[in-house]
Specification:
The protein is an alpha+beta fold. The chain has 4 domains: 4-63, Arc Repressor Mutant, subunit A (Orthogonal Bundle), CATH 1.10.10; 76-124; 141-249, no CATH class; 256-333, 2-Layer Sandwich (Alpha-Beta Plaits). It has helices at 4-17, 23-30, 34-46, 76-88, 96-109, 112-124, 143-155, 241-252, 266-270, 297-305, 317-333; strands at 51-54, 60-63, 92-93, 141-142, 159-163, 187-197, 200-206, 213-217, 221-223, 256-262, 278-282, 288-294, 311-313. A hairpin with a 2-residue loop joins strand 6 (187-197) and strand 7.
């Protein structure tokens, strides 16, 4: 039988592993009597762990929320996974120092065999560039912004913020008032979901007056004071937030946008692109339009060049000039 201290740690580990346990289940797992379990529960409470009890035939014990974070008792695989995750975390500013502190504390108490395993993985793995698909530095988002947005989603609370999207002539309204021009801020929305894609964070939200759904880049959001106003969530059309983000970003989520006429049927273009590249609109049996974007002109040029199809670009003017420059450069390369 385990001594009292070891048994208390084992009991605490069990209670952290799932939401609730009956006294009989705990007694069986620890090979002790029900009376011993009740005594150990009282010892945990004396040590400051908020163990809640539900009495009756269907009664159970559960570890409640306390004023302080109790020690987390991780098994070997969990400890290694957390250590690797802390080393590999990227893309959210404001947590670098706290992540480093957490990793230091974890590695300090890891058993030698696990510390060697984490160290071996760290030394054997090389990290590639943060952005392998673009020549633009990856945006960073303040962790406090993501936390506040997530809390508003959880609590179904209206969210108000300033939005610094690049100005474009064809932008549609993104306020709750459909008559307000794009860029007339602040924005008031019903927040529904955060989506992480291509090292960007996006908020999917609905206008409380218009009912229109839009995507907002989190790194372009500057939060205002909390509204404290609740809303009644409605069902998201189609239910697929990630697919909606891919479609909406193609038209309003990049620094640079373009409509490219492609001399091919829409189905041929769709067969050649990743859905994340953009939206394809059919014009007729032999022509289609690719609505796409990126955070640089160079990346749009790369996308269109990889189509392997004839295309024509008339806007934006900067992209037209960039393609002319590329054309001359490629022509000189084979002279």
């Amino acid at each position: 039988m385990l001594d009292t201290s070891s048994r208390l740690l084992a009991l605490l580990a069990l209670m952290q592993s799932r939401p609730q346990w009956t006294g009989a289940q705990l007694a069986e797992r620890l090979a002790v009597s029900g009376r011993t379990i009740r005594n150990d529960i009282e010892r945990l409470r004396t040590l400051g762990y908020p163990v809640e009890a539900e009495r009756g035939p269907a009664g159970f014990y559960r570890l409640g929320a306390g004023a302080k974070l109790p020690p987390l008792l991780l098994d070997d695989e969990e400890a290694v996974a957390v250590a690797i995750g802390l080393r590999a975390g990227r893309g959210v500013t404001g947590i670098e120092e706290s992540a480093a502190r957490a990793l230091g504390k974890l590695e300090q108490v890891l058993p030698h065999r696990l510390r060697r395993q984490v160290s071996a993985l760290h030394q054997a793995v090389s990290e590639g560039p943060d952005n392998t698909g673009t020549n633009v530095v990856a945006p960073v988002v303040d962790a406090a912004v993501l936390s506040t947005i997530a809390a508003a989603v959880r609590d179904a609370e209206l969210l108000r913020f300033d939005y610094t999207a690049p100005a474009r002539e064809d932008d549609t309204p993104r306020r709750n008032d459909a008559s307000a021009p794009f860029g007339d801020w602040p924005v008031l929305v019903e927040p529904y979901r955060l989506v992480s894609w291509e090292r960007h964070w996006y908020l999917v939200a609905r206008g409380p007056e218009t009912g229109a759904w839009h995507t907002y880049r989190a790194d372009w959001i500057t939060l205002r004071m909390a509204t404290g106003r609740r809303f009644t969530p409605v069902e998201f059309p189609g239910g697929d937030y990630a697919s909606f983000v891919l479609r909406d970003v193609a038209t309003a989520g990049w620094q640079v946008h373009a409509r490219i006429t492609v001399r091919a049927p829409a189905e041929d273009v769709l067969a050649r692109i990743n859905p994340a590249v953009g939206v394809v609109e059919a014009v007729d049996e032999t022509t289609s339009v690719l609505v796409t974007g990126a955070d640089s002109l160079e990346m749009i040029a790369v996308y269109t060049g990889m189509l392997g199809l004839d295309f024509h670009v008339t806007e934006p003017p900067e992209l037209v000039e960039h393609l002319r420059t590329l054309g001359r450069r490629y022509a000189r390369a084979v002279e």
